[in-house]
Amino acid sequence: VSTQPASPGSHQPPPLPAGEAEPVVREGLKHINEGCVFIYCQVGEKPYWKDPNNDFRKHLKVTAVPTLLKYGTPQKLVESECLQANLVEMLFSED
């Protein structure tokens, strides 16, 4: 999952769109295949994220946040797709 970082001084992860995607993703993790690894990362402060040459855009082809992607495949969910439990479950359960 790629997200923007929390506000400076905050000890909480940033809310995903309207705070809705995080619970959907957490529930979807119940369907993750055995042996899979889930990585949560932040894409950096806004100036870094907006740079078209940042590593997330350049190497992982992340175009928006939040993004769920299956590394090494073209499979990914972007923005509001991360709010759809059936899509999240499908992404996590497919080989």
Automatic annotation (TrEMBL):
Example of a GO cellular component annotation carried by this entry: cytosol
Thioredoxin domain sequence ranges: 20-94
Residues in the signal sequence: none
Stored SUPFAM superfamilies: Thioredoxin-like
InterPro entries the record matches: Thioredoxin-like_sf (IPR036249), TXNDC17-like (IPR045108), TXNDC17_dom (IPR010357)
Regions of compositional bias (Polar residues) in chain numbering: 1-10
BP term (GO), one: tumor necrosis factor-mediated signaling pathway
Protein name per the record: Thioredoxin domain-containing protein 17
Taxonomic source organism: Ursus maritimus (Polar bear)
Lineage: Eukaryota, Metazoa, Chordata, Craniata, Vertebrata
